Amino acid sequence: MHLILASGSPRRKELLEKLNIPFDIIVSECDESLPQDTNAEEAARMLAERKAEAVARLYPEAVVIGADTTVILDNRILGKPKNHADCIETLQRLSGCTHSVITGVAIVKDGRTISFSDQTAVEFYALSEKEIQQYADLKEPYDKAGAYGIQGQGALLVRGIHGDYYNVMGLPIARLARKLQELQIIA
């Protein structure tokens, strides 16, 4: 069985390696635009499906895994920061609040797509302007939804979580492993 991760995320690669099975990485090139009325959970699953299906069209014999992570605060999706000012604004909004991280996961096998999503609540400390500025000055927040990486220096911003830590990193690996077992893709 040929397994492909349709993501260039180093965090997703690291997490999938926990399964101790060989896989290839092929970054998906797909349209990531969504209808305006799409809710966050649907958005994460829909984008995960698009990514996996785009790669599966090129490798129909493979099992392809796609994922997409969305950060939500007050029913608003917080994407990757566009620039330094956007990063600071996002961190100011998250300061002292609890937000949701939703990761959609899609598995394409034999032309069939199975998808699910996982949600984790993340509470931030009330952050000083100095803390926000110092974090925004790092390279870390700019390729991450919500402008922080919980596995890096962003851990210093987090007061607590309720749910799967690895979901916040971008791949709920334990749930994915169970789904792959259920589909008889792994033992």
Subunit arrangement of the protein = single chain
Beta strands, count: 7
Structural class: alpha/beta
Major sheet details: 7 strands, mixed
Order of helices and strands: EHEHEEHEEHEHH
Radius of gyration: 17 Å
Outline: elongated
Number of helices: 6
Beta-strand level of the residues, as a percent range?
25-35%
Poorly predicted ranges: none
Helix content class: 25-40%
- How far apart are the first and last residues' alpha carbons, in Å? 12 Å
Arithmetic mean pLDDT: 96
Concise account of the structure shown:
The protein is an alpha/beta fold.
Protein traits:
187 residues; alpha/beta; seven-stranded mixed β-sheet; 6 helices
Describe this entry's structure for a reader.
This protein has 187 residues and is α/β, with parallel strands linked by helices. 32% of the residues lie in helices and 26% in strands. It contains six helices and seven strands; from the N terminus they run E-H-E-H-E-E-H-E-E-H-E-H-H. Strands 1, 2, 3, 4, 5, 6 and 7 form a seven-stranded mixed beta sheet that branches. A hairpin with a 2-residue loop joins strand 3 and strand 4. The longest helix has 19 residues. The protein starts with a strand and ends in a 5-residue tail after the last helix.
